[in-house]
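Work Package 3 (structural annotation) set out to generate three-dimensional models for the target panel prioritized at the project kickoff. During this period the team completed the workflow that converts sequence records into discrete structure tokens, so that structures can be stored uniformly alongside our sequence database. As a representative example, we reproduce one entry of 172 residues exactly as it appears in the project archive.
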Amino acid sequence: MSIVHRYLMIFIFGACLIIGIQIPNFIDQYEKRIDAHYIEVLQNFRGFQEIANRYYGGDIEALIKRHETSTDETFQAEGKPIEQMYKRMLRFEREKASLDTTYPKKAIHVIVNGDREIIEETYSNYSAGIVLDKLAILSGIVVSVAACFLLELILILGKRIIRLNKSLERTG
């Protein structure tokens, strides 16, 4: 192993360790944003839900339908914003339910199926912090080892492909 290769691997391991340590903090900030948006939409939606409870047995979709089919244009125009708010509330409810699990499943969910709007918002407002609890350390080590393992695997495969091509050129 050359000295350049060794230092490159140390650098990659260190960089991945720092990135891995940030993952639990990012997920925590993501969850807090989901919670904040959910609380806000609940507050904004409360009045409409009360109207649906009073006149439509709690069926918000019946309230929305009533707005949409109204002959009053102003009342009719209110239907779409109420529906959008309702869908947003349901979206955050689903996201909160998906995050109510173990850390590994939470991390996979955020990476694979997380709410892209909230991920972008979290990323653009992310405040990095080095919280060295067990979860952050474990996350950092897993990311670092996985990245170094994958890099080594790619290098080994690359060398074998180059050797195979050279041997084919000699025989062909």
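The chain has one domain: 3-171.
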